[in-house]
Amino acid sequence: MLENKFRTQLKLYIKKPHTFSDDTHKLITKNNKIYVSKHLQHKCAKWHHLTLMHPGEKRLELTIAQHCTWIGLPTTCVRVCKCCENCAVSKKRDTRYGLLPPKPNPEIIPWHTLCIDLVGLYEFGIPEKPETHIELHCMTVVDPATGFFETVEIGENTADIIANWLELHWLSRYPWPTEITMDKGREFATSREVNKTLINDCDISGRLLPVVIHNQTP
């Protein structure tokens, strides 16, 4: 039986002439496809993978199989795709790990919460020379949800000036917040001017949140 099979079965590999440029070469083919030798299989798969702009394992295998073949072609395609750094980074992952996303809170709702604080006093120049000496006070206003902020230079850190600049530079230009976060400084929490501007004049429904903010200014 085995002898008859060898006699009747066609050769698995056939040498076919192939013309390239001015020369003619003999290629080993199988089923009219180029049979790639073992030491060129990985290079062939990698070249197709880069030329085709990083396709998937199955698409790479089907593309190579149109003209080339060798034993273990699917395994080689899988190994080339797994070793590619670009494919590993851009691969879509369906499985999600970790905790559930947090519920919406005021800190992630746009224009809901407003944080205000004072920065300074900063001194520039030489105190003995009034023409070069500068004192700088600033007020920072931040919306934590959108990350939008304003920095305003103020002459003095008094309650009436802070209330005036807050109304001119934020409340008259952007949506009014529902809640305002501030520290326990005398310019904010205990000031009637600030409370009058925020609650009475602007009709802000909500509560002021006095929190302790660590001073990071020198």
What does this entry look like structurally?
The chain is α/β, with parallel strands linked by helices and 218 residues long. It has helices at 2-8, 38-51, 57-64, 73-82, 85-90, 159-171, 192-201; strands at 14-20, 23-30, 33-35, 68-69, 113-124, 134-142, 149-154, 179-182, 208-210. The chain is built from seven helices and nine strands; from the N terminus they run αβββααβααβββαβαβ. The chain starts with a helix and ends in an 8-residue tail after the last strand. It has two domains: 13-89, Orthogonal Bundle (Endonuclease III, domain 1), CATH 1.10.340.70; 106-210, Ribonuclease H-like superfamily/Ribonuclease H (Nucleotidyltransferase, domain 5), CATH 3.30.420. A five-stranded mixed sheet has the order 7-6-5-8-9, with helices on one face. A four-stranded mixed sheet has the order 1-2-3-4, with no helix packed on it. A hairpin with a 2-residue loop joins strand 1 (14-20) and strand 2. Helix 2 packs across helix 4 (73-82) and helix 6 (159-171) runs parallel beside helix 7 (192-201).
